[in-house]
Write a structure and sequence with these properties.
Residues 1-325 form the Major facilitator superfamily (MFS) profile domain. Its main location: membrane. It is found in: Cell membrane. This is MFS family arabinose efflux permease. It is a multi-pass membrane protein. The protein has helices at 2-23, 28-31, 33-47, 60-83, 88-110, 124-154, 159-164, 167-178, 180-184, 190-207, 216-243, 251-278, 286-332. With 342 residues, it is mainly alpha-helical. It folds into 2 domains: 2-27 and 120-324, Growth Hormone, Chain: A, CATH 1.20.1250.20; 60-114.
Length: 342
């Protein structure tokens, strides 16, 4: 259900945002979050049970160093579009980002109550899920951003039509995600996860071949079907592997790491996709140039998805299969016999 609602929310957001931009203004797309947020605030006390209170200290230095580090890194990557990698501003920002993130890790090692307990990385399945999610979402954000531009600027869709153009992905995403519980009873979760990333990769690479002569059906809609199926398989499983085996007192931190790698992945992923698009030489046709930029960005996304698949195969898959075999051995082991007193 989590994977289905997340995927549908992203796609429906494009449809609703496109409708608002078409009929009112692009600014209305930002305002739509206000009534939704207000409704969530009002309904949360009724449907979400209150958690118990616990004494603690906020890891202010950890939060500050992580925020500044990621911000500097993203700024440095995006700055390469205008200034290049050798620019003093780029070098300074990227270097500062790396140093601040190293400082963040050192702070977390010593903090009494860290916002990112490093012990959560002791599990190969959790670590793999964090890294794979970072890469997967980094690729997907570029897909949404650049495919929208292709639909409008190359195929000539208006904002509403562009939003509706994502519906093939939404429908397949929902159908596949709803079938995940049945798969989990028959297969180790790492197998459909790897399959989902592979299917997403196939769809992304297919979509990266688009050009000025591409038709919506064969150039966009059919690749979207693959991407939707892959996301339906992968998204919820990346979440479940991100919290699997975490002790109760670390459950909140594990969930927080899932969302942190999600958000940081989208920030850095979009920055990298924009840089890749900016490397495309300018041509006499603006439409052809944009189509080539979309292809370059989605090709980069395909490479990032390949890395996500490699992480899944190297960390999550073997650890998950080993855990499943160990569980099967425990189930078939004979119960210990009590000796009778003599």
């Amino acid at each position: 259900m989590y994977g289905a609602t997340a995927g549908i929310g992203a796609s429906l957001g494009l449809v609703i945002g496109g409708a608002l931009a078409h009929w009112i203004s692009w600014r209305a797309g930002f305002f739509v979050n206000v009534p939704i947020g207000a409704a969530m605030i009002a309904l949360a006390p009724r449907f979400i049970p209150e958690s118990g209170r616990a004494r603690g200290r906020f890891d202010a230095f950890g939060a500050l160093s992580a925020t500044l580090g990621v911000g500097a890194l993203v700024f440095g990557i995006i700055n390469t579009v205008d200034a290049g990698w050798s620019s003093p501003v780029t070098v300074t920002a990227v270097s500062a980002g790396v140093v601040l993130l190293v400082v963040f890790v050192l702070i977390e090692r010593r903090a009494a109550q860290p916002i990112m307990p490093l012990r959560l990385f002791a599990s190969r399945r959790r670590t793999g899920a964090y890294v794979a999610r970072f890469l997967y979402l980094g690729a997907m954000i570029g897909f949404f951003f650049f495919t929208t531009q292709f639909l409008q600027e190359v195929l000539g869709f208006d904002p509403l039509q562009a939003g509706l153009g994502f519906l093939p992905m939404t429908a397949v995403n929902f159908a596949v995600a709803m079938g995940i519980p049945r798969l989990m009873g028959k297969l180790p979760g790492s197998i459909p996860l790897a399959a989902g990333i592979l299917i997403t990769l196939a769809g992304m690479f297919w979509l990266s071949r688009v050009g000025v002569d591409s038709a919506y059906l064969t150039g966009v809609a059919l690749p979207m079907v693959l991407i939707g199926a892959g996301q339906g398989l992968a998204f919820a499983l990346l979440t479940s592997f991100g919290i699997i085996g975490a002790p109760a007192f670390d459950a909140g931190a594990a969930s927080g790491l899932v969302n942190t790698f999600h958000q940081v992945g989208t920030c850095l992923g979009l920055g990298i996709a924009v840089v890749a698009a900016a490397t495309v030489p300018t041509t006499s046709s603006a439409v052809a140039h944009l189509a080539a930029q979309v292809g370059a960005a989605l090709t980069t996304g395909s490479i990032v998805l390949l890395l996500a698949l490699a992480v899944t195969a190297a960390l999550i898959l073997p650890a998950d299969l080993a855990a499943r075999r160990a569980g099967a051995r425990r189930e078939v082991a004979p119960a210990p016999q009590l000796e009778t007193a003599r």
